[in-house]
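Margin note: ligand = 3,4-dihydroxybenzoic acid.
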Amino acid sequence: DLSTSIAGVALPNLFFNASGVWCQHESELKELLDSESGSLITKSATFEHREGNPSPRYVPLPTGSINSMGLPNEGFEYYLNYAKNYDYTNKKPLFVSLSGLSLQDNVKMVEQFAAADLPCVLEINFSCPNVPGKPQLGYDMEAMENALKVLAPIVKKPFGIKLPPYFDIAHFDAVAAIVNKIDNLAFVTCVNSVGNGLAIDFETETAVIKPKDGFGGLGGAMILNTALANVNAFHRRLTGGKQVIGVGGVTSGKEAFLHVLAGASAVQIGTQLKEEGPSFFARVKKELEEIMQAKGYKSLDDFRGKVKTL
Ligand code: DHB
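Resulting structure:
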């Protein structure tokens, strides 16, 4: 049994896409709906449509991927309309990712969602590393706390935030303390890409992506341990039933199992979904079910957060 629930909403299984992968256009969202994913989330929306950065802007690497997409998206109204027309009786709940370029834009978008009163769940992105000249909110504790205090009462319902990876225990403490103050902040999604890596082609001596002199967010297998640390750090610190969605480095059922062991209540897939396509969901479900069977676990609750320490 791979069922779970996030923010009080039931998912038939714990797996869905990481925002940004396979979710910019309705045709891609349809493919997620037709897959064995347990849910789906839309591409991070800005108030206006964006073309994003010049290509190449996503490149697979031997142990993951690098990207600097630059928030290409259809604009907020496209995803609001998608959410308005979504069939909420189909068992897969809908998540919507919002990534305003300013707090004012986030306020405007969240207000319109609140006014539409839809059963979808918002994941507000505090961690886009790829817009030139914009530092990400997730690394500015004061700005993050202020944004949450402004946005949470407008959202009203339970919602979540997408966080960047942290690398310092003091930062885990500080961010968790802020999150714990916001009553209707029901989950954190850990982690966004590891920001501003650089991949260089050995033969041509050239950066592999075009934007930002080749700097971009790292994803995939190479970030698994950073992701697990962030999932577990927040799982240990969050109070009041707040949940963690794990994302980072899942290429098979084994890494998904580790994310749940670290404390994840659901697991999102980025790089591997981009590379393998939506049929990945059938494979990873089967692999996780086989692992649970072999270990004698019947439900995710049997092992969620139960990583042992020495
Ligand atoms: C983009 C990348 C991110 O990591 C994110 O959170 C939002 C957008 C992008 O480059 O499009």
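The pocket of 3,4-dihydroxybenzoic acid is lined by residues 20, 44, 52, 68-71, 99, 125, 127-130, 192-193, 217 (CB under 6 Å).
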